[in-house]
Amino acid sequence: MTDKLNKTQILELLPHREPMLLIDELKNIKKLFSATAIVNVKKSSFFVQGHFPGQPVMPGVLIVEAFGQAAAALTAAGIDKKEYENKLVFLMSVEKARFRNPVIPDCKLELNIEAIRSHGRVWKYKGEAFVEGKKMADAQWSATIVDRK
After folding, report:
1. CATH number of the domain at 4-124+133-147, out of 3.10.180.10, 3.40.50.720, 3.30.9.10, 3.10.129.10?
2. How many CA atoms within 13 Å lie on the side-chain side of 39?
3. For residue 87, what pLDDT is reported?
4. Active site residue: 27, 31, 51, 87, which one?
5. 55 Cβ contact partners less than 8 Å away, ≥ 6 residues apart
6. pTM of the predicted model, to two decimals?
7. What is the per-residue pLDDT across 91-142, written as a single tens digit (0 to 9) for each?
8. Cα–Cα distance for residue pair 118/18, rounded to 1 Å
9. Residue 51: active-site member
């Protein structure tokens, strides 16, 4: 397994597609344990026009979504393909989410995520988001792997 995934490789692991695929790269991968996701927050990002006109900010809920996508990619990259083929990952809970600083386009948002534990198809994660070394947000969340209908 590689310690880095590009966007094309992430597309092979996740069901998300544009404009909702938020992560551009997954690097520093430690199988089923941790990774760093890169989100290139651009002035052309789909949310900029309406959130907020003239003073764009990446919505906190999308930072949480990016955490979830990074965790799903980390998990899918570390397990047997048969375990995630024809499956979806759904968030179950978001805990302790804190938004410390606004994420302003154009920037590179780095998400450091870690799998805390797993029990069957339920996984718990934690993560911190940074721009140029400054902490922007952090959260803990749980997700489950379910069969596609």
Report:
1. 3.10.129.10
2. 30
3. 84
4. 51
5. none
6. 0.95
7. 999 999 999 999 999 999 999 999 999 998 899 999 999 999 999 999 999 9
8. 29
9. yes
Q: Looking at the DSSP assignment, which residues form a beta bridge with residue 139?
A: 127
Q: How many residues in the chain?
A: 149
CB under 8 Å to 24, separation ≥6 — which residues?
7, 10, 38, 39, 40
User: pLDDT tens digits for 54-65?
Assistant: 999 999 999 999
- Six token digits for residue 55: 């003073």
